[in-house]
UniProtKB/TrEMBL annotation:
PANTHER family: C3H4 TYPE ZINC FINGER PROTEIN, RING_U-BOX SUPERFAMILY PROTEIN
Protein name: RING-type domain-containing protein
Keywords for the protein's UniProt record, in alphabetical order: Membrane, Metal-binding, Transmembrane, Transmembrane helix, Zinc, Zinc-finger
Renumbered residue ranges of the record's region Disordered: 28-48
Source species, domain of life: Eukaryota
Annotated RING-type domain residues: 296-337
Keyword presence, Membrane: yes
One term of GO molecular function: zinc ion binding
Length: 342
């Protein structure tokens, strides 16, 4: 009987060579005769597999599965294809890191468009490329203002942490969503018009306006990539990642599970001692006690005087001991599931 020992991918990270071997116990004289009479197929079946994945590839797969961009890609995929909850804070595109990336992309496009328009004044394109580029630049400027509006709503006012607390915030959120829908519709129509004008085979636009033509093709290619991003993400996570996981014997999706927060991350969160405060209702002449601020949702116990409290980045409060233990296991809020910034 063959007893096979396999090393796990975790242990392979610290080793230089991947080892897979078999221990075959000593056989008696009768068993030796049986092995001699066995065919070539039976003999080759006892050999170790010849194709052994390299430990370097396994280490690379582990690093990729634990990278921040891979975890973000999985969050985007689950948000786009899963059942979306009413909690708008679960949208990964409303995070501060993603908004910074959008800011860099918009500023880069605006700078390139302004520079190209300034150096291509003498060009005379067949189609109104200058008008298309100008309209695209104006759309980027409007998107820049819309981006600051989103940052003010979701990052500064912390609307994403919980439902809007008043009518004004709810109206601002609705207006912002309508503005985003309008801008997406504008860029979709502008993208189709740019393809019709630029890729018309009847006229040679590159000879008369080379700079504007290259700029238009670059912007159209960038928009094509952004529009096909969900399909590219689907191919990566549903086709490429499972194939690599089967070849290497390491589940990349299991390695991307969010780990607990570090001590440094937990200590950066604000803390204080609890004091029971009752707010009077001036209109009704009564006392209001908010149950969400008097009870810890982790241990389900009411707060007591001078108990140590801790507040997360989403403005939710908990017992310090409860939330510290929680964050060491899962680095996200127990209520809104918003992750800690690393």
């Amino acid at each position: 009987m063959n007893t096979r020992y396999l090393f796990t991918p975790e242990s392979l990270c610290n080793s230089a060579v991947t080892v897979t071997f078999s221990l075959i116990p000593s056989t008696g004289p009768g068993e030796e005769r049986m092995t001699e009479n066995m065919g070539p197929r039976s003999r080759t079946s006892t050999r170790a597999p010849s194709a052994i994945p390299s430990s370097f590839l396994v280490r690379m797969a582990i690093r990729i599965s634990r990278a921040r961009w891979y975890s973000f890609a999985r969050r985007v995929f689950h948000y786009q294809n899963g059942s979306r909850s009413d909690d708008i804070g679960s949208n990964p595109f409303n995070s501060a890191s993603w908004m910074y990336m959008e800011l860099m992309g918009l500023v880069f496009q605006i700078v390139v468009i302004a520079y190209t328009l300034s150096v291509s004044k003498e060009e005379k394109p067949v189609w109104p490329m200058r008008t298309w580029v100008t309209g695209y630049g104006i759309g980027c400027v409007l998107n820049l203002g819309l981006l600051f509006w989103r940052y003010w709503l979701f990052c500064l006012n912390q609307i994403g942490a919980e439902l809007p607390s008043n009518i004004e915030e709810s109206r601002n959120l609705q207006m912002m969503n309508k503005s985003r829908t309008f801008m997406e519709l504008f860029f979709a129509i502008w993208f189709v018009m740019g393809n019709v004008w630029v890729f018309d085979a009847r006229f040679g636009t590159f000879r008369k306006a080379p700079k504007l033509d290259v700029l238009c093709i670059s912007l159209l290619a960038w928009n094509a990539i952004t529009y096909s991003f969900p399909f590219i993400l689907f191919l990566f996570l549903c086709c490429f990642v499972p194939i690599i996981s089967n070849l290497l014997g390491y589940n990349m999706n299991a390695g991307s599970i969010n780990r607990g927060a570090s001590e440094e991350q937990i200590l950066k969160l604000p803390s204080w001692k609890y004091k029971h405060i009752i707010e009077p209702d001036l209109e009704q002449g009564k006392l209001i006690v908010d149950s969400s601020t008097t009870e810890c949702c982790i241990c389900l116990a009411k707060y007591k005087e001078n108990e140590e409290m801790r507040q997360l980045g989403c403005s939710h409060n908990f017992h310090m001991k409860c939330v510290d233990q929680w964050l060491k296991i899962v680095s996200c809020c127990p209520l809104c599931k918003k992750e800690l910034e690393r």
